Description:
This protein is α+β, with helices and mostly antiparallel strands.
Amino acid sequence: xxxxxxxxDIDTSLAQRVAAANEEAIANFVAPRSxxxxxxxxxxxxxxxxxxxxxxxxxYFETDTGWLYYWAGTAWKxxxxxxxxxxxxxxxxxxxxxxxxALFFVTDKNxxxxxxxxxxxxxxxxxxxxTALKINGTKVIGTQGTAxxxxxxxxxxxxxxxxxxxxxxxxxxxxxxxxxDDLVANVLPKIRDALxxxxxxxNTTRARLRAATxxxxxx
Length: 219
């Protein structure tokens, strides 16, 4: 330090007050609110380590499930949070009525499960409609119609993915028998193949729309 130089006094009280205010603001932001009354103290740990009791409305965050609970006076009750993992992970979690409302997103099936009446409930498997499903006022799915019977193919044509062109009969058949022979040999087989292919595709489409495949649009 240069000879004769005196360092100025630095007032740190303002900085300390600002730091204390910021610390308090952060604590208030991250602290969960009490449900009704009580201390609302927060503790964390895995699901198996929840204490057997606490002060009214104390809170416990399960680090292995991501669920937040509060002490209701006699038991820990689910408050908030969503867990995620495979369906096997979800099924391995034993739940009770104290977990009612808890949510779990199944990553391998893209479903959300919820605990209801102390058991896992898949509320997103089916959509029950009494009249129709509308999007922006436009009906996109109506009520399920009566059963549609599949086609029985007695044509005995060859089924394929391409409908071949139907050839024209010969322009100048020598007689009716020649015309018939031409139709039987060249025209009718193509018609049979086309009808059989259409019937097969239609039956496949119907099968995919039935309830057994998860669509349930037709019976």
